[in-house]
Amino acid sequence: MDNMTDQFRKIVFKLTQDSDGYPPVSFESLWGIQKEEHLYQIDNTPYYLYGVSKGDWVCTQTDENELIAVSVAKQSGHSTVRVFASCKEDKLAIKENLQRLGAVCSITSALSLFSVDIPPHVSFTAIDEYLSSITNDETIAYEDACLQHGTLDASRLAECVSLASLRMKPDAA
Questions:
Q1: Cα(first)–Cα(last) distance of the chain, in Å?
Q2: pTM of this structure
Q3: 98, 75 Cβ separation under 8 angstroms
Q4: Are 80 and 116 in contact (CB under 8 A)?
Q5: Tens-digit pLDDT string for the chain (173 aa)
Q6: What gap in Å lies between CA 108 and CA 114, rounded to an integer?
Q7: CB–CB of 71/167 below 8 Å?
Q8: C-alpha to C-alpha distance for 14 and 11, rounded to whole angstroms
Q9: Is 5 in contact with 66 (CB distance < 8 Å)?
Q10: Residue 12 phi, psi (nearest 5)
Q11: Does residue 119 have a cis peptide bond before it, meaning omega lies within 30 degrees of 0?
Q12: In terms of DSSP H, where are the helices of 49-163?
């Protein structure tokens, strides 16, 4: 690939909706940077996926000119959480506090839900403690989407892995 923009491709992740219709979409597309044939590194943070974070490498297959993610080949060490804040002012204040702690937030103004990328060098514990302190489970809540910080409780990590949208290759960790 000669041109930097040629490296970026949309990767489609198929989602399974629960009995309540969540997530509200049947697929999510993320940007990937091609590393090898059928192997892409994810370049943004997912909103609805479980088990995939920014920087992870995914294996793909082509289906009618779309790249479909089929497994996680390599984890990046980033963790992803999702935050729900029903009030716009709360959402903006939470975003600012998370950014001060080193997280990167992906916010869409029309949604109460936003995703949070926690890079490997950032303290997951500090972010988790902050979010726990403000959660009331009605107007502010958060959930684990992909945990890769190694200092976490094994049962919490296992629960997160059990929700994964894609299977993990055995040597992906």
A1: 28
A2: 0.89
A3: no
A4: yes
A5: 444 445 799 999 999 888 998 889 999 999 999 999 999 999 999 999 999 999 999 999 999 889 999 999 999 999 999 999 999 999 999 999 999 999 999 988 888 999 999 999 999 999 999 999 999 989 999 999 999 998 788 888 888 888 888 877 666 55
A6: 7
A7: yes
A8: 10
A9: no
A10: -95, 130
A11: no
A12: 88-100, 124-134, 154-162
- 5's enclosing H/E stretch is helix 4-7
Q: In this structure, what DSSP letter does residue 111 have?
A: -
Residue entry with tokens 């490296």 = 7
Quote the tokens at residue 63.
């289906």
Which amino acid, 148?
Q
Tokens of 134: 């403000």
